[in-house]
Amino acid sequence: MKVLITGIAGFAGSHLAELALREGAEVAGVVLPGTSAENLTGVRSRVVTLPCDLTEPGTIARVLAEVEPDRVFHLAGASVVGTSWARRAEVLRANLDGTFQLLEGLRARPVPTLLVSSGEVYGRVPETAQPIPESQPMGPISPYALSKACLELYAGYYVRADRLPLVVVRAFNHVGPRQGPGFVWSDVARQVAAIEKRLVPPVLEVGTTTTRRDFTDVRDMVRAYWLLLERAVPGELLNAASGRAVSIQDVIRGFLGLAKCPIEVRTAPERVRPLDIPLLLGDAGRLRGLTGWRPAIPLEQSLEDVLDDWRGRV
């Protein structure tokens, strides 16, 4: 089986590549020209990477013709919610133009394809209505979430009009080694690692800490992707989430408990988002019923692995 992963050198993409190799697949992936492929260091000799800007008309269609994949996982695109207000044009172009070009390319070569959306598309949902099921209407409040909501509309159109075998997953927050800056876990772990090495003063700068999120280890999340594309019916849309809400304050406490020195915590106004969601908790009952998937890696292990990863990077 041949697998094509867009965004293969990214955070989730690199973990998915490792999983696909363990499953015995031949793995190819597209990498935006000029970006690092460092995340693929452990498997670089076992995967084929092709330079490709998905937003350029016809480029991904040529990749599909060259690779002739049996499955496609679409993970490429802008992924940082916090910076999406300042970079809204770039976020919308990357996520919408890239998806459009991929779907146009698939018209000539329709193969089972997983499109990764986000739990952020739900927006502000009353706590009494959470965990959030797939039936909850979308209400995006960030440019990033808007781009994912539009991606879902694109997918629905191509399923209905062109009968493309597409599956959409609304992935809630996922964490783990190799995640880049701009996400709360990586930003906290990076600062802690730098403080331990005395590169910066022993002060941890944070944004809003009262928000609660549904965190899943990325290695569990990509397993959900794999199972979904294997078993879901084309046109289906399912949540992937742990079903457990954890506050950012608890995440910070977890990292401080692993730190090798005392650290002071301060709120930095520039780290506070213009709009935020107090609670985002997903209901993945349909995913569990379809695949039997459940998270296997405890968040305590994720905390250790993320901090160790940043200790080796700073």
The geometry reads as globular
- Using only C-alpha atoms, the radius of gyration works out to 19 Å
What structural category arises from helix and sheet content?
alpha/beta
> What is the beta-strand fraction?
15-25%
Major sheet details: 7 strands, parallel
- Total helical segments: 9
Q: Which percent range fits the helix content? A: 25-40%
- CATH class of the largest domain, named Alpha Beta
Estimate nothing, just give the exact number of structural domains: 2
What is the CATH superfamily label of the largest domain?
A: NAD(P)-binding Rossmann-like Domain
Describe the structure.
- This protein has 314 residues and is α/β, with parallel strands linked by helices.
- It folds into 2 domains: 2-174 and 215-240, Rossmann fold; 180-213 and 245-278 and 297-311, UDP-galactose 4-epimerase, domain 1, CATH 3.90.25.10.
- The protein contains 9 helices and 14 strands.
- The protein has helices at 11-22, 59-67, 88-108, 143-162, 184-196, 218-231, 248-258, 285-291, 299-311; strands spanning 2-6, 26-31, 47-51, 71-74, 113-118, 166-171, 174-175, 203-206, 212-214, 216-217, 237-240, 245-247, 264-267, 279-280.
- The strands form 4 sheets. It has a 7-stranded parallel β-sheet with strand order 3-2-1-4-5-6-11, with helices on both faces.
- Helix 2 packs across helix 3 (88-108), helix 5 (184-196) runs parallel beside helix 7 and helix 7 crosses helix 9 (299-311).
- It starts with a strand and ends with a helix.
- The relative contact order is 0.14.
- The mean pLDDT is 96.
